[in-house]
Design brief:
The protein is an alpha+beta fold. The protein has one domain. It has twelve helices and four strands. It has helices spanning 2-18, 21-39, 69-96, 99-103, 108-113, 119-153, 158-162, 164-185, 188-210, 218-230, 234-253, 261-284; strands at residues 40-45, 48-54, 57-59, 67-68. Strands 1, 2, 3 and 4 form a four-stranded antiparallel β-sheet that branches. A hairpin with a 2-residue loop joins strand 1 and strand 2 (48-54). Helix 2 (21-39) runs parallel beside helix 6 (119-153), helix 3 (69-96) packs parallel to helix 8 (164-185) and helix 6 (119-153) packs antiparallel against helix 12. The protein is flat. It starts with a helix and ends with a helix. The relative contact order is 0.13.
């Protein structure tokens, strides 16, 4: 399995480089990092904020007071992590949705099937290779911005770096769905659009779930519940990133917002079901 994974990882990276996907992936991430690094300038005196310049504009500290820099950093990192959560998730979809349609192209699939490799192992190793590509970008964005914050503020918040693991978990679920759609349709465009739709669909489902009293019929409530618990909890897991980075202070300010373990469990079940469906269909498909 490790040899298959290594071969697929090499193929995925080589293919991404040849199609400029890899270059575009990290170029866009680097632009975001440069904008972030140049846009935020803080004047810190004895551990407190006495002045700030944000995106070229002076931020006024009212009454000449000073702000505790650690509290400011925790709040700012919570916002940054939420932005990175959205950015990394959608970039991961763009960068990896083509993997199965490309695999199933005539010539490519013939080359792979000529090797003594089972179809399930082939598909799952390609999934792990795509997930590695997405993980590389998540580590790059979260890691570099974390280091920039430490350099500018001297405040170390390890939770910001570790929040990338939640982002990777969501990217894994989205990639699993993209693989299922890719096996069914063999279309990169359909895979991207469908996966985007599922990721964005989490918002209306979240709102409908919290406003079930507005429904007039019981079947509408039942349908909303089924759909809510079926699809990945992209909104709740985004909230989890925000709250985790902010720590106890953020949880106290947002006492009504809680993310249960069910959000993780149901999203994991969704990903496993999509991978199982993709594997089953891939073994039965004629090339």
């Amino acid at each position: 399995m490790m040899k298959v994974l290594a071969a697929n990882l090499e193929d995925v990276m080589r293919e991404a480089a040849a199609r400029w996907t890899l270059i575009a992936y990290f170029f866009l991430s680097s632009i975001f990092i440069i904008i972030f690094a140049s846009a935020v300038n803080l004047d810190i005196v004895n551990g407190t904020l006495s002045g700030a310049r944000l995106f070229g504009h002076e931020a006024t500290i009212r009454g000449g007071s000073q702000i505790d820099i650690e509290q400011l950093v925790l709040g700012a990192e919570s916002i940054f992590s939420a932005v990175l959560y959205v950015l990394c998730t959608f970039m991961a979809i763009f960068a990896t949705a083509h993997l199965v349609p490309r695999l199933q192209e005539k010539g490519t699939i013939d080359l792979y099937l000529a090797r003594p490799i089972g179809r399930v192992r082939l598909l799952l190793s390609r999934y792990l290779a795509g997930l590695t590509l997405a993980a590389t970008n998540i580590v790059y964005l979260f890691g570099v911005i974390w280091l920039i914050v430490i350099w500018k503020t001297h405040v170390v918040n390890a939770r910001f770096l570790l929040a990338g693991a939640i982002n990777l978990f969501v990217a894994a679920a989205m990639l699993a769905f993209a693989f299922a759609i890719g096996v069914i349709t063999s279309s990169t465009a359909v895979s991207i659009m469908s996966t985007f739709a599922v990721a964005l669909f989490g918002l209306p489902l979240y709102l409908f779930k919290h406003f079930e009293a507005a429904f007039s019929k019981q079947w509408e409530v039942w349908l909303t519940d089924v759909m809510y618990w079926t699809f990945p909890k992209t909104v709740e897991l985004g909230q989890a990133v925000f709250l985790y980075v902010g720590g106890d202070a953020m949880r106290q300010q947002l006492r009504g917002v809680e993310v249960s373990s069910a959000a993780y469990v149901t999203t994991a079940i969704f990903a496993i079901a999509c991978l199982a469906l993709a594997s089953w269909l891939f073994t039965r498909k004629e090339f």
